[in-house]
Amino acid sequence: MAQSMWLAPLTSSAAWTAQAQSSCSAASVFATLVAAIVTKGIATAQQKAKQTKDIVKGPYDFIVIGGGSSGCVAASRLSEVSSWKVLLLEAGAEEPNYGMVPAFYNRYLTGPFYDWQYKTQKSGWDAGGSTGRGKILGGCSAVNALHFTRGNAGDFDHWSSLGNTGWSYKDVLPYFKKSENNLNPAIASDTQYHGKGGPQDVELDRYIDPNTQLLMKAYEEAGIASINDVNGAKQIGVSRAPSSASHGERFSTNRAFLTPAVRRRPNLTVQTGATVRRIILSSGAGKPRAVAVEYDGPQGRKTVKLNKAAVLSAGSFNSPQILMLSGIGPKSHLNDVGIKPVVDLPGVGQRLHDHMFAKGNVKFLLGKTANLGTQQQIIATISQYVQKRTGPLTATGNPANVFFRSKFQKADDPRPDIQIPLGGSQYLTTTGVKGCASPEAAGTYFNQLGFNAINLHPKSRGHILLNKANPYGMPLIYHNVFGDESDLKPIYEAFRLAVKLNSTKVFRDNNITLSYNKPKQCTQLTFNSDEFWKCTFQGAGSANQHPTSTCSMGPDSDKLAVVTPRLAVRGVEGIRVMDASVMPGTTSGNTNAVCVMIGEVGSDFIKQDYNVKTG
């Protein structure tokens, strides 16, 4: 198990204990201490980034663009072939040690150094705002909430039904298993669905607070089945969440697939601080071919030649942007922004698909079980993690989920259409001491549980465009949240389920009550009606930061398909795409595990095309 050396001061400093006992709260001290350590850590990382040297020495057989959830997998798997020279280009920096603490995911891995900080445009219910994507080796797997849900078998059978040969659940299940090293014996023993010995450690959140357990029981009482393994035979029901974690620490694809042994391979080069501008295409007769990649690196702009293929793994925002900057995309749009079209591929940047939710401000107020935490409890929480890697700091706030089918889901579609994440730590309002608050330290201490319902398969689709003022800058992202307002209907049903919980014995026995926002303009509407919930949402909707489908796969008959079912970009030789952008649509849950699978499948496609044995 990797050691988080930065945590040492918490166990070795007598001053820490004395200060904790004499200050307004232990949580306040912890927050101050962590902030200081993290600030120093970022400064050190920034200094190292400035000292990063360009070690690229081409040409390379394969250039992987983007060291994220899929890109780390691709670089690792392709470099298994010792005769192939592989380069991985990542715009961000190396992954920091302090990022291994799961509870810190939404606190200290944000900001421009580790996050692209994209801005969305006003569209549908999206008022425009920031949306995060990991700018770091490991990509979103290094900064996300660690959920490692595969989705539903029906997701992949649906992909296959669209003409994507090789992507049915039967086809992809071996790849989910191939990458997995499941650390929970009861789950790992189900070898039909799980793997043991793969690079990617997976475990259930090591901590689930008592109030979330009560909420799970309430859902069961309300008619939602309990399931033990959301990545097994059944997904629909209430269950604990699997995480990309190893013994209580984050285990990103960087740590899983780019181990020190892999990084020492003589045929693999990993270059951080390298922002790719475009793929250079041949200008001769016949189909254009990728011949080089241009990037801005630590020592300035550079072009590196490639022999076989560029592998785009830059994510659902950057992959279509790089294609368009390379002259591959909708001809009219490229002309409009001053990019010379080389391949007219109208689907590039189209079909943006994400999970969507509305902000209804519904909460479950805790009575008997509310606990804002004493100094001693918070100190114990910290010690527990430092010494044993257990307790609240091993969780990210949503240790369980409900997946269910609303009445609006088609009868012949087996997939759930609603996800309800369960947990309360992110809804902590106070540590109980005026002026002191530290959600990181007090992850198990709160006085309310939040409610949120996510539409997993909305009809609404968005798109991505280059910015005419600066094509090489941030792309224009239009999520079109609830552009089709029928996407709200399953969410209304989910909110009615929340109201139903108020009548359960679990809630009555524990004095848990439902609280909801009721704006003045909604007071005349019938409570719990569609009109009531829509009014309380007040047009406040958002995508769930699981963007997909902007370079979607499809058969020849699909005129908006960007890549073939084998992930080769149409109309050009020597470019593959391996990331969430190739999905024809969202999956039934968080997308990180699916991105790992795509990296595995795509790497095998390449090996097969070059007659390299796979398995």
From TrEMBL:
Chain residues that bind FAD: V276
Signal peptide residue numbers: 1-20
Record-stated family: Belongs to the GMC oxidoreductase family.
Protein name: Glucose dehydrogenase [FAD, quinone]
Keywords of this entry: FAD, Flavoprotein, Signal
Keyword Iron: no
Lineage, uppermost ranks: Eukaryota, Metazoa, Ecdysozoa, Arthropoda, Hexapoda
CC cofactor: FAD
Keyword Ion transport: no
Glucose-methanol-choline oxidoreductase N-terminal domain span: 315-329
Recorded GO MF terms: flavin adenine dinucleotide binding; oxidoreductase activity, acting on CH-OH group of donors
